[in-house]
Write a structure and sequence with these properties.
Elements (H helix, E strand, L loop, with lengths): L1 H4 L4 E5 L19 H5 L5 H4 E4 L4 E4 L8 H5 L2 H13 L2 E5 L8 H6 L6 E5 L5 H13 L6 E5 L5
């Protein structure tokens, strides 16, 4: 929303295929899910849904893909990212927690920046250190950290 408010076009990709975190917040199932686009059975344009009221577009997922990490490691994913970068000022990809699935590390290889999201008051220091170690061991660096669900005061 903040980027849209600055006049930037934004594409939000739900890369958490197993949990579909972003998809839960949208009305109705995706028209053409991310898996179809990554398998080149649908175009990026066919998969885009506008998230009304937020001023951004989304490419949502469903749970039809048994091996999402393989899809993100494919040349199809690289082509999708290049096409998205040409069409949008900012492309944000939400992935599952790095300690649960390798998707985040695979996606980070194609990213300009990687943000580690930490649930305030719930994610322990050891978990954060292990996540950072996983990225470091794969040659990826973290650009910044986002603390979510923090209590004011």
């Amino acid at each position: 929303q903040s980027l849209h408010g600055l006049g930037r076009s934004v594409l939000l990709i739900d890369g958490d295929i197993r949990a579909g975190g972003l998809s839960r917040h949208c009305s109705g199932p995706p028209v053409k899910a991310l898996g179809l686009v990554l398998r080149e059975e649908a175009t990026l344009e066919e998969g885009i849904q506008n998230i009304g009221g937020y001023g951004l577009d989304a490419l949502l997922c469903d749970d039809s893909d048994p091996a999402p990490s393989d899809l993100f490691a494919s040349d199809c994913f690289k082509r999708l990212i290049e096409k998205a970068r040409q069409a949008y000022d900012t492309v944000i990809i939400d992935t599952p927690p790095i300690l649960l699935a390798p998707t985040g590390g695979i996606v980070a290889e194609q990213a300009n920046a990687t943000l580690l999201t930490v649930q305030s008051d719930r994610t322990g220091r050891g978990t954060v250190e292990e996540a950072l170690r996983v990225f470091r061991n794969s040659g990826q660096s973290i650009t910044g950290t986002v603390f979510n669900q923090a209590r004011a005061g």
